[in-house]
Amino acid sequence: PGTYRESLQLAGKTITLASHFLTSEDPRDTAATVLDVAGPDNQRGASVLVIGKDTGPATKIVGFTFRNAAHAVTVRGQAQVLHNRFTANGDALSFENGRGMVRFNIFEGNSDDGIDLDNASAAVIEDNGETLTLPAGSFAGRAPDLGAFETGKPR
């Protein structure tokens, strides 16, 4: 638990990055473990977490609150993004030629896209809460189970 003002990059291996939620399954642990990149002037920072293109397919991000980032989490490789809360970001979760699973997350108060799929990205997006906004021209709206998407189009 705590607020961490960090920018992290994962590369070259499979890793599970998790709060105490991983073992407790208590949503209070998600709320209490905050990754925040706001600068001293309270302006949004760039990215909280970048998942590199060489990460392993079993990489998991579990149980954090991400806030105050232009792009809170950017996935360029593969990752499962589970049980997180994204608030007060620009793009909350960006896939940039990335792949993954997005489940049991809350997206609220983000000023741009809740989930942004760019270029040759693909993700299974299901069982999320709040309003999700996907790239322009694809799909936007409240939908806890969006199914599988590839480059912003349902398959």
Q: What does the secondary structure layout of this molecule look like, with pairings?
A:
Layout: E1 2-4, E2 8-10, E3 16-18, H1 21-24, H2 27-32, E4 33-36, E5 45-51, E6 60-62, E7 65-67, E8 69-75, E9 78-82, E10 85-87, E11 91-96, E12 99-103, E13 106-108, E14 115-118, E15 122-126, E16 131-133, E17 140-142, E18 145-150, E19 153-154
Parallel strand pairs: 1-4, 2-5, 3-6, 4-7, 5-8, 6-9, 7-10, 8-11, 9-12, 10-13, 11-14, 12-15
Antiparallel strand pairs: 15-18, 16-17, 18-19
What can you tell me about this protein's structure?
With 155 residues, this protein is mainly beta. 6% of the residues lie in helices and 50% in strands. The chain contains 2 helices and 19 strands. It has helices at residues 21-24, 27-32; strands at 2-4, 8-10, 16-18, 33-36, 45-51, 60-62, 65-67, 69-75, 78-82, 85-87, 91-96, 99-103, 106-108, 115-118, 122-126, 131-133, 140-142, 145-150, 153-154. The strands form 4 sheets. The chain has a 7-stranded mixed β-sheet, with no helix packed on it. A hairpin with a 6-residue loop joins strand 16 and strand 17 (140-142). It is globular, with a radius of gyration of 14 Å. The termini are far apart. Residues 131-155 have low confidence and may be disordered.
